Amino acid sequence: MPTLEAGSALDVAIAVSERLPESTSQTARELYEALVWCSVETARRKGQSPAITEALLHLPLEQLAAACQISRVTAWRHLPQLKALGLVDWRTHKGSLRGETRSTGTCWAVRLSPYKGPRARLSADDLRHKWRDLDADVRAGRTSYRALKHTKALEDKLLKFEMLLAWTLPPSTLITPVTPVCFNSRSAELEAVLDVASAPKAQRGPAVDAAAQALARALRDQASVNFFRRLTWQLLRRFDSTGEDHSYSVYLAAIRARTDAAEGFARRPGALMQSRLKGASWFAEMMAAPPTRVGSRPAAQA
Question: Helices marked H in the chain — which ranges?
Fold first, then answer.
């Protein structure tokens, strides 16, 4: 079986899914590939052993289906093939929202070896774990439904998987509101870009600065931090004046540029992201908008 050291997480996921029995449907293979990718990438970003053979995750089913470009119903129809092979076990997880019982998402046990090891199985403790605080998520505007339309609009598989990872939580890592499992990585910092629009006006200054610094660190471009601040303020002005929130576009452009740099296709990911954003139909008009006051500046910049 490929280990975490056998190449990129996508390479490992593809190699493992290719070892499934020939009778396995293509859709089941793609679902397993996505779950393995999340498991491997989560383990890597947590610094776990390359010998990991099983993973426990919390992930909304609708996000998994969207990453595989299928409906929830189609996912439900093909997942039993993986369960019959002992590779996947899943249950709907329940939590509380405004005092009423609601689904928080789906718990998954994923075996990473198609031909050896015990059957993937969830325990009662896995289902009792408080994976998410739904009230805090709703207050922050961080809901799976809101993110789903952005995931569906993506074409690149790796970007779809990156969005999927943003909704993946491992055991013993309850983050409220929900943020990516890679809390020590640049992806977690990039989530600050998505939080700006929901920040109260009195806190927008610090939120903008946090987003700009996160972009600068993730793209290794500290020299452009002032541009990133301006970009984030303009995103807010656009949001206030038209209701259009382009923060996901910026977030995904940053992920894509960082990935290109990691794979050797770009030496200056910050410049690459800026170049791609300039090609967007909304970018020039947004950046040309007058600098109206939409929030207070951080004390350090006042």
Answer: 9-17, 26-45, 61-67, 72-84, 124-128, 134-139, 144-153, 157-165, 186-195, 204-218, 225-242, 247-262, 269-278, 283-288
Residue numbers of the chain with a pLDDT score lower than 50: 1-4, 145, 151-154, 170-188, 298-302
Q: Cα–Cα distance between 292 and 123 in angstroms, integer?
A: 54
Tokens of 39: 């498991």
The verdict on 165 and 205 lying in the same domain is no
Q: How many structural domains compose the chain?
A: 2
How does DSSP assign 211-238, residue by residue? HHHHHHHHTT-GGGHHHHHHHHHHHHHH
Q: What is the pTM of this model?
A: 0.55
pLDDT at 297: 53
Domain that holds residue 159: 1-181
